[in-house]
Amino acid sequence: MSFFKSFFVDSRFFLALVLVCTSYILGFFYTAFEALGDVLFIILVVSTIIDTLLLFSQPEGIKAERFVPQRLSNGDNNSIRLSIQSSYNFATQISIIDEIPHQFQIRNFKLNASLDKHEQKGFSYDLRPTTRGEFEFGNINVMVSSTIGFIRR
Predict the structure, then answer these.
(1) Segment 102-153, tens digit of pLDDT
(2) In the Cβ-directed half-sphere of 95, how many Cα atoms lie within 13 Å?
(3) Nearest partner of 15 among 112, 153, 148, judged by Cα
(4) Per-residue b or e along 3-12, where b marks 16 or more CB atoms closer than 10 Å to that residue's CB
(5) What value, to the nearest 5°, has the Cα angle with vertex 112 and ends 106 and 113?
(6) Which of 1, 36, 91, 112 is most deeply packed, by most CB within 10 A?
(7) Taking the C-alpha atoms of 4, 93, 60 and 47 in order, what is their torsion angle to the nearest 10 degrees?
(8) Chain CA centroid to CA 12, Å
(9) Which residues partner with 143 through β-bridges?
(10) Quick one: which of 151, 144, 146, 150 has its CA closest to 60?
(11) What is the reported pTM?
(12) DSSP for 91-118?
């Protein structure tokens, strides 16, 4: 069940699927396009299977850790650091969505980057609290895709 919770189809897959469908539609008028559609469909299926196997071959492909100061200074910028480590044997593209406390009203926080094989990268961003209180950070969501880019994990 956890496989399906972390399995996402990327927009690149749907663009390739539109190309296959267009080829089949043109196949009604020109026979060569139907054969092209068959080949493109097989390539799409095989590429999707390879992409899935690549991404799910590592049980813990990406490790993420957040470093927050013990106390956040009210009214000042506070640096929040993220450390991301890849254990994949190939280069990956990642999207990091950090669940920032609701008091900051930041709903669209997203970082995009690429990681080489077994690379560790650090990211930082600033938060400026304007109210006092406890700030509870949520999860660090890291979406990973291979160079094929049909599937995201």
Answers:
(1) 888 888 889 999 999 999 999 999 999 888 888 889 899 999 999 999 999 8
(2) 12
(3) 148
(4) eeeeeeebee
(5) 145
(6) 36
(7) 50
(8) 13
(9) 95
(10) 144
(11) 0.82
(12) -EEEEEEE---GGG------EEEEE-TT
Total length of the chain:
153
Give the pLDDT band of residue 4 (cuts 50, 70, 90).
confident
What was the pLDDT predicted at 103? 87
Residue 145 and residue 151: Cα distance in Å, rounded?
6
Residue with token string 């049980």: 59
The torsion angles phi and psi of 106, rounded to 5 degrees, stand at -105, 110
Q: Position of tokens 């994990």?
A: 153
- The residues, ordered by sequence, that sit 6+ positions from 53 with a Cβ below 8 Å of its Cβ are none
Structure tokens that stand for 72 in this block: 């956040």
- The label of the residue with tokens 């992409």 reads 51
CA distances from 87 to 67, 91, 98 (A): 20, 10, 20
- Sort strands 151-152 and 8-9 into parallel, antiparallel or unpaired: antiparallel
Rounded distance between C-alpha atoms, residue 10 and residue 152, angstroms: 6
Beta-ladder partners of 48: none
Contact 78, 127 (CB under 8 A): yes
